[in-house]
Amino acid sequence: MGIPVKLQVFEGPLDLLLHLIDKNKIDIYDIPIVEITNQYMEYIRAMEKEDLNVMSEFLLMAATLLDIKCRMLLPKEVNEEGEEEDPRQELVEQLLEYKMYKYMSYELKDRQVDGEMVLYKDPTIPEEVLEYVEPVDMDALLGDLTLLKLNRIFKDVMRRQIDKIDPVRSTFGKIEKEEVTLPEKLDYVTDYARIHKKFSFRELLEKQCSKVQLIVTFLAVLELMKVGTVFIEQEQQFDDIIITSVL
């Protein structure tokens, strides 16, 4: 009778690979792919998971490791710059990125724990202090202020406001966003086609009052052609397009 062994729980295949790399004290930039693949496969065979979605992630990584293992046995590929490509490069980049985010999660967890140990106290300021208003001596505040000085200060403030005005942008008008929806134009073109039966595409576009309406009207005609509500014909290239309704 076998002895049941409780396996360590990993958050995903990259977490398992990092564990194997740390356990074997391996340089992440020079992974012995054969050794790591064998250990990874041993762990997969020992796993007992009811969740097939989770198990599929580990099996996908196993297939990736086997693919890299096979490519390591073949002659090395050379890129356009004449440099040899390492089949492990993409896996190394994924591991480094995962390791960075994992350590960031540890840092955030520590901050959360520290934050839970901080207590805050609501302010308890007496009402007398809150209602206190420091008296103002108007004579001392105004001092030797005269109407002439007030006028000079007012003109200085107004001059500064004028200097802030951009001479170029201040002449710009306001651009209003025109709301034109495709469903609205579909109803419009459908009604137009039901009434006119056969009409010019140019004539339909000339009735639109903006570039946005032109574009949405064109899209509406394409949609009606797609569903078979209308069909178009053109006798020669660059001739006017004639739209016929089947409604």
From TrEMBL:
Entry keyword Cytoplasm: yes
A cellular component annotation (GO) from this entry: cytoplasm
Main location: cytoplasm
Gene Ontology biological process: cell division; chromosome segregation; DNA replication
Location in the cell: Cytoplasm
Keywords associated with the record: Cell cycle, Cell division, Chromosome partition, Cytoplasm
Domain of life: Bacteria
Pfam families noted in UniProt: SMC_ScpA
Functional summary from the UniProt entry: Participates in chromosomal partition during cell division. May act via the formation of a condensin-like complex containing Smc and ScpB that pull DNA away from mid-cell into both cell halves.
Subunit and interaction comment: Component of a cohesin-like complex composed of ScpA, ScpB and the Smc homodimer, in which ScpA and ScpB bind to the head domain of Smc. The presence of the three proteins is required for the association of the complex with DNA.
UniProt record similarity statement: Belongs to the ScpA family.
Protein name per UniProt: Segregation and condensation protein A
Organism whose genome encodes this protein: Extibacter muris
Taxonomic path: Bacteria, Bacillati, Bacillota, Clostridia, Lachnospirales
